[in-house]
Write a structure and sequence with these properties.
The complex is a heterotrimer of chains A (321), B (354) and C (283). By secondary structure, chain B is an alpha/beta fold. Chain B has helices spanning 2-25, 51-64, 77-86, 100-105, 137-145, 154-157, 180-192, 194-199, 216-226, 236-241, 261-273, 309-330, 340-349, and strands at 40-46, 68-74, 91-94, 110-125, 134-135, 171-175, 212-214, 230-235, 248-250, 256-257, 295-303. Chain B contains 13 helices and 11 strands.
């Protein structure tokens, strides 16, 4: 036992608290919280050291290389970066108008009970597992795209480089559409909260000077909430970038860069899922891990930006965080 | 409030109960366990090419030996090679034999054991065409190089005078994963097309000039079945089991041959007599009139030295069973039996597994 | 009424109707998914599905009993990692922490939340599968567990913060120490929110496929213990869905229905128990 007489005042206080459990509780919970940081750091560290080979061999050229050739050991990330960015951009292009439009309806027009009910249903969409989106993509979305949508686009807009080329069904377009459906609930959910938090005085002021409901919404309320809406877009983007299963089942899995949306493509997450268990040779496996690291860093940056935006606006008190 | 709290507690209790039951359902200490306590799990992974016959074999073998479970996952030959090199599975499977470089990467020596022979067929989905098409080597190479883009191209239409081919785009489907089936296919293309050999080469995973990627033989057949105008290469049984048409291929004697037991067996006839000791051999484009040119052995990859003696015995016993009783099941699934000479040589080689 | 006013009125009606169309479109997507799975999955649900093991390729009559149990085991493992760290971490953030450190922890938790699930799989592969030299339920469970942590932390913290200050002050006034207050007063008051948060995060990781592809791998038989590869519903749906066998497609639909039903039940249950989410109110 500790000789209490020898202890200084502070240590004695510590011992007393220890017996009462406060410091223990503090310590245990602190360890738990700290372990989250430890796990995240370990995650980045493991990704980093396990891609040493391609980093040394290719350096920054890795991000510019267009060839992914396991036979000759030439690995370039550009087709996957392209596929990931374009499919996500396409998803945003489709989901943002849809999502903001629905959010406006739910916050401005719908009666409260209907709004709550519909929002609840839409938030359930976010809970549907990715692999289910994937199988529905294969059996429903891709045939519809192939037989109806793509021929229509080719017929009407075929002069644009985006709609040229043979129609397979599985394609960048399919990937973008599936992602759009998956991320739209996030945009709706956050945008709706943000729009609801706009003070009613803003709307009343606009209506008082003779604006129509739409003009009041579009020209006053939405700009007021635009920062929060942008944050929701960032979050949706981060989710789209990391999405694996649904994308790999409909995007065609071809590592080529093609302007046409009808052509198959390949995303970072999809190639890792397909080739990880069989990457023969350490360079191949580590090239895939390096792709994973790139993806992770990109999602960190985007998430970080979104969080900063939300924090900044919360502190300003303009929107709900 | 109280109602909601009670509901929460009940729900939580139900979830915990279910999870707890799951945890104990198959633990060794549970009394009415679905498998006997001492059931040993042997993990293997690899080729999708022989998956139908392997899954049948392992199922039958488990009925004979309920204390043994061979868990085989068809993730592609590339995966089989990778996992056996890394030592994360007990045995691998591939239809593209390991290269010397790959063998050098493994910590222990890996032995190849042929199991069956099969054929890789060109399967297609063309509207209005359910007949068998004749494919020349030049046509196949041209299609997969992306140079022949329409079904009514003369290179395809030429040997198929009695079929009206539509003016439809060809959708090439290949493997997105590392595949022995790919290896067999590109091995054949490399032999018949100089351009293919220099431009693309042969490996379990290649840089495809064109096409969509499907995962496994299952994925390629699925994609071809779903996509009008598609052509893909799959193991014979996948096309047959899914009622998909597949074409004849012109062999080195100039005859269009359909893949079946006889033509695949003929393909191996020459190799059987001159089989190398490590069993790594290619039988594509073999000589002979009745030969189907895109045929291959498929191998199990077994480490020479297995530390767990129970596992070693299980694997060795299975290999012997496979060479005797197992061979009787293969023809029902359209795989060809191993030639007698190969069986004899292999039976001796099994003793190498320590 | 001037032409301009008339135009503005038309624009008003058209745009507002469009927003209604957007909302209905999104809602109908969910009903479509549900309806499709109920129809196709419901047709294929039979006793064999729940009780049988997978049959050899091409043969009918197989089931997914091992995958259902496998998913259960993986979730149990995930909870063993995710629940303690998530709960205790949330307690720290709500009750004990200082400003800067809390900010860092929250920020990093959010970053971890946004990490792609495939990256979690790579992580578990490098730190568990490679040293152990085989795939295992343990590796899969750990990958899922790490994914559970961020949501568990956040919901725990929010629920604890929602407990009124009055309760805490009352307990402290009676002489309870800090940890006793938290353990016996605050946590029980917040328990509903905490438990439903955990159920929500369980539902989320139940549907994850990517992290399991090269950690838990898959298994055609019953998986014993925690060290063997193990089948799971999402991975089976993925494998069967991609194939060309009609029988496998039917099983994939059935599995999809089961999985979706469980996930939706957990989500709906959670919302019912804790009327969460910002309900309609204009500030």
């Amino acid at each position: 036992m500790v000789d209490r007489a020898r202890l200084s005042g502070r240590a004695r206080q510590f011992m007393q608290k220890l017996r009462h459990g406060d410091e223990v509780a503090h310590l245990i919970t602190l360890l738990a919280a700290a372990s989250i940081i430890v796990v995240t750091v370990m995650l980045v560290y493991q990704l980093f050291i396990n891609c040493a080979l391609p980093r040394h061999k290719f350096g920054f050229e890795f991000f510019l290389g267009r060839t992914w050739d396991p036979v000759s050991g030439d690995f370039g990330a550009l087709p996957f970066i392209y596929g990931t960015l374009v499919s996500s951009a396409l998803a945003l292009l489709l989901a943002v108008p849809l999502g903001v439009g629905a959010a406006i309806f739910l916050s401005e027009l719908a009666p409260p009970r209907i709004s709550n009910y519909l929002t609840f249903v839409i938030e359930l969409l976010a809970a549907v597992p990715s692999v289910i989106y994937g199988v529905l993509g294969i059996f429903v979305l891709v045939p519809v795209l192939r037989t109806v949508v793509m021929p229509f686009l080719k017929h009407t807009l075929g002069f644009l480089p985006f709609f040229k080329g043979p129609i397979y069904g599985v394609s960048m377009l399919a990937g973008g559409v599936v992602l759009a459906i998956m991320i739209v609930p996030f945009i709706i959910s956050v945008s709706r909260e943000v729009l609801l938090a706009v003070p009613v005085e803003q709307r009343e002021a606009a209506l008082a000077v003779g604006a129509t409901k739409w003009e009041s919404t579009w020209q006053v309320v939405v700009p007021f909430a635009r920062v929060g809406i942008m944050a929701s877009v960032f979050l949706a983007l981060a989710r789209a970038l990391g999405e694996t299963m649904a994308v790999t089942m409909v995007i065609g899995n071809d590592p080529k860069i093609n302007a046409s949306l009808f052509a198959p493509a390949y995303s970072i997450a999809a190639v890792i899922a397909n080739e990880f268990t069989e990457a023969t040779g350490d360079l191949y496996l580590q090239a895939l891990i390096e792709l994973g690291l790139v993806l992770f860093l990109v999602t960190i940056v985007i998430n970080g930006l979104a969080r900063l935006v939300i924090i900044a606006t919360t502190q300003k008190g303009a929107t709900q965080g | 409030m109280k109602l909601k709290t009670s509901i929460t507690s009940i729900a939580l209790g139900a979830v915990l109960l279910v999870l707890g039951v799951c945890a104990f359902v198959d633990s060794p200490s549970a009394a009415p366990a679905p498998t006997p306590d001492s059931a040993m799990l042997i993990n293997g992974a690899g080729a999708t090419f022989p998956y139908p016959i392997y899954s049948k074999w392992f199922d039958e073998y488990h009925k004979l030996h309920p204390d043994l479970q061979f868990n085989y996952q068809s993730i592609g030959s590339g995966g089989g090679i990778r996992q056996i090199i890394a030592g994360t599975v007990d045995f691998g499977a591939t239809d593209g034999p390991m290269t010397d470089e790959q063998l050098g990467q493994a910590k222990t020596k890996i032995l190849h054991f042929p199991t069956v022979m099969g054929a890789v067929v060109p399967t297609y989905n063309i509207q209005g065409v359910s007949q068998e098409l004749n494919f020349t080597p030049e046509a196949l190479a041209g299609i997969f190089l992306g140079k022949i883009t329409k079904w009514n191209d003369p290179a395809i239409a030429g040997p198929n005078k009695d079929v009206t081919l539509p003016d439809q785009d060809i959708v090439v489907v290949h493997r997105s994963d590392g595949s022995g089936t790919t290896y067999v296919w590109v091995d054949y293309l490399s032999k018949v097309s100089e351009e293919w050999k220099t431009k693309v080469g042969k490996n379990t995973s290649v840089n495809w000039p064109v096409g969509l990627g499907g995962k496994g033989n299952e994925g390629v057949s699925g994609l071809v079945k779903q996509t009008p105008g598609a052509i893909g290469y799959v193991e014979l049984i996948y096309a047959a089991q899914n009622n998909m048409p597949y074409g004849k291929v012109k062999n080195s004697s100039g005859i269009f041959v359909k893949a079946d037991l006889a033509s695949v067996t003929a393909a191996a006839a020459g190799a059987a007599k001159s089989m190398p000791d490590d069993f790594r051999v290619s039988i594509t484009n073999s000589l002979g009139k009745a030969v189907y040119p895109i045929a291959s052995f498929t191998w199990l990859l077994v480490p020479e030295k297995i530390e767990d003696s129970a596992k070693k015995k299980a694997i060795v016993d299975f290999l012997h069973w496979m060479l005797k009783d197992g061979q009787g099941m293969v023809e029902a699934l359209s795989y060809a039996k191993l030639p007698k000479e190969v069986v004899a040589k292999e039976t001796k080689a099994i003793s190498q597994v320590q | 009424m001037s032409l301009r006013t008339g135009w503005r009125k038309i624009v008003n009606v058209v745009m507002l109707s469009l927003t209604g169309v957007c909302a209905l479109f999104t809602v109908s997507a969910l009903f479509f998914i549900l309806g499709y799975l109920v129809y196709y999955g419901g047709k294929s649900l039979n006793w064999a599905f729940f009780v049988n093991l997978p049959a050899p390729v091409g043969e009918a009559g197989g089931g997914m009993a091992n995958a259902i149990v496998g998913s259960g085991k993986l979730l149990l493992l995930a909870s063993l990692l995710g629940v303690p760290i998530g709960f205790l971490g949330g307690v720290y953030l709500a009750e004990f922490g200082g400003r800067t450190f809390c900010f860092i922890v929250r920020y990093i938790t959010d970053l971890l939340n946004g990490a792609p699930s495939i990256v979690m799989g790579i992580f578990a592969y490098t730190i568990i599968v490679i040293p152990m030299r085989h795939f295992s339920a343990f590796a899969g469970g750990m990958a899922l567990g790490v994914m559970m942590i961020p949501i568990a932390v956040r919901t725990t913290e929010e629920s604890l913060r929602a407990v009124p200050l009055v309760l805490r002050e009352g307990a402290l006034a009676l002489g309870a120490s800090k940890w006793k207050t938290v353990a016996t007063v605050v946590v029980p008051a917040a328990i509903r929110g905490i438990v439903t948060g955990i159920m929500l995060t369980l539902a989320r990781v139940a549907g994850e496929t990517a992290p399991l592809l090269f950690t838990a791998f898959s298994n055609r038989f019953w998986s014993q213990g925690w060290n063997q590869p193990i089948a799971s519903l999402p991975v089976m749906i993925y494998t069967y869905g991609l194939s060309a066998y009609d029988d496998w497609h039917r099983q994939a639909w059935a599995a999809g229905l089961v999985l979706l039903a469980l996930v939706l039940a957990a989500n709906i249950g959670a919302r019912f128990v804790v009327s969460r989410g910002i309900s309609f109110r204009r500030v």
